[in-house]
Amino acid sequence: MELLEYLKRDEILFLCHHNADPDAVGSCVALKYLASQLNSKGNYRIVADSISKISRNVLNEIGERVDVEIYPKLPQTVFIVDTASINQLKVNFDELKNKDVILIDHHKKTELADICKYYIIKEDYPSTSEIIAEIFRELNIFPPKNVRIALLCGIVYDTKHLKLANPKTFELISYLIKDISFQKILSLLSQESDYSKRTAHLKACSRMEIKEFDKIKIALSYVSSHEASCAKTIVSIGADIAFVVAVRKKEGEIRVSARCRKHVSKYVHLGNLMEKIGKELGGSGGGHSEAGGLNAPYDKSKSKEKVIKEVLNLCYKRFVDEYKKAKNIN
Ligand SMILES: [Mn+2]
């Protein structure tokens, strides 16, 4: 397996996407363990520019660490894990291009793959953790309990508590779980929505504009943070598709998160749509068929209100264009 040649290297940096979720963290913890089994003298580190609260729960439980850093120093070998596009990482791209980059992911393939020496992208896997668990199984290396907890958390989190699981997911869970309590995994992943998140949900709903096209309810809104969770919430209470913008003036950045119901994703793949709109806005995007996002630079010469309006209009317009094309409506 070519992957193993890279995992045997003496120094490896494992990179998680921004606001690293349990799937990214679990996958990295397991890869780091695998590397250390293959090369006990290796120097291995996991880095993310930020870590989600739930991931912190998991890391505390298993006694592992992820270093929170932006623009980390890059060794010759860099693994990028569970990450669809370069904009989800705070790394020096010019420097990265000259390294041996290995990508392991389950999102739609983007241009990030072009700079990789080697990649494993399995879009049909509900989680990256399953891709990694399968590698362990194939190698006949049974991971220790803390690594299995990390992978199970990744799987259960990304499958939305198994709602998106497929038959293989259950097979891999039964391979991993053995002496681990499933209730324990669920409790590590459960958290009361925090105050700022609930506030953002309520604001997103109160500011929401609802448009309709071909009986599809399209919700457009904006917040200053938690845009992904807001888009998810808006779909859960009735929209067919939601676009939520967050403008971060200080960081000079616009973020858009989109979520939709399955019947919409049959016509428009949100990951593709967000990749397209992201490029149009001078940034990048990607994601899955029912969940996507983009990051783009914020044009400071324009007011926040104007930017929000323009971005939401663009999302609406491009979505309708793609939908019409797919459904053959003129
Ligand atoms: Mn994932």
TrEMBL record:
Domain DHHA1 residues, every copy: 242-311
Superkingdom assignment: Archaea
A GO molecular-function annotation: nucleic acid binding
DDH domain: residues covered: 12-155
PANTHER family linked to this entry: BIFUNCTIONAL OLIGORIBONUCLEASE AND PAP PHOSPHATASE NRNA
Protein name per UniProt: Phosphoesterase RecJ domain protein
Organism in which the protein naturally occurs: Methanocaldococcus lauensis
